[in-house]
Design brief:
The protein is α+β, with helices and mostly antiparallel strands. The protein contains five helices and ten strands, in the order E-E-E-H-E-H-E-H-E-E-H-E-H-E-E. The chain has a five-stranded mixed sheet, covered by helices on one side. Strands 8-10-9 form a three-stranded antiparallel sheet, with no helix packed on it. The protein has a two-stranded antiparallel sheet with strand order 1-2. Helix 2 links the parallel strand 4 and strand 5. The longest helix is centred in the N-terminal third of the chain and has 18 residues. The radius of gyration is 21 Å and the shape is elongated.
Length: 226
């Protein structure tokens, strides 16, 4: 029996593992073809399954909004290209939660041999040896993995949270800040912790209103773009 090549599961901060693949939108060289863009690279267990169908309708419906955030979608399952095409055509006939005539225009990777899904740790034997779990990799314009999410086979993803993560990462990169729990665009953001006693004192004594501190190590500022 041919042994599968062992791959180290990629981690946050790693450069996204590279591969070439056939997709419903032609061949791609990943992540090379997406340099300079954010990418949501995600896997689903199987075509023609109900949870995956709702997810693809939701992903496709938000694709234009993500493009405005310089973000592209790339999907994967271990099904064949022809199964992908047939399923995506069927999706256009389904109406769910106000979504109808949904056309999936982002690439869906054929991964019959499970080469890509194994490289990204999407095949997890505790769940299935023949289906990918619901993995999400958010990859930045420098091809670095910034977020990894794994969902079980039975649980559909929260698309709003995926978009929120992208917004938070972009905010953090742009303004050198962090975002607190449940952060939404326009909310106050967290500034880097003071690196010296002097800076900590200055912040605690600052009455200008630009930055306010709950304690010396926890200071926030208003989002001026709100």
């Amino acid at each position: 029996m041919e042994e599968k090549e062992f791959y180290k599961m990629p981690l946050i901060g790693d450069v996204a593992p590279s591969f070439k693949a056939v997709t419903t939108q032609g061949e791609i060289d990943f992540p090379k073809d997406y340099k300079g863009k954010w990418v949501v690279f995600f896997s689903h267990p199987a075509d023609f399954t109900p949870v995956c169908t709702t997810e693809f309708m939701a992903f496709a419906s938000m694709a234009d909004d993500l493009k405005k955030l310089n973000t592209e979608l790339v999907g994967l399952s271990v099904d064949s290209l022809y199964a992908h095409i047939a399923w995506l055509r069927k999706i256009q006939e389904i109406e769910y939660k106000g979504m109808k005539n949904v056309e999936v225009n982002f690439p869906l990777i054929e991964d019959i041999k499970m080469d890509v899904s194994n490289k990204y740790g999407m095949i997890q034997p505790g769940q299935s040896n023949t289906q990918a779990v619901r993995a999400v990799f958010i990859i930045d314009p420098e091809s670095k993995i910034r977020t990894i999410l794994y969902y079980p086979l039975s649980t559909g993803r929260n698309m709003d949270e995926i978009k929120r993560i992208i917004l938070a990462l972009q905010k953090a990169d742009k303004d050198n800040v962090a975002t607190p729990a449940d952060w939404r665009p326009g909310d106050d953001v967290i500034v880097p912790t003071a690196g010296s006693c002097g800076v900590a004192k200055e912040r605690m004594d600052d009455e200008s209103g630009d930055i306010y501190c709950l304690d010396w190590f926890m200071c926030l500022k208003k989002d001026k773009e709100s």
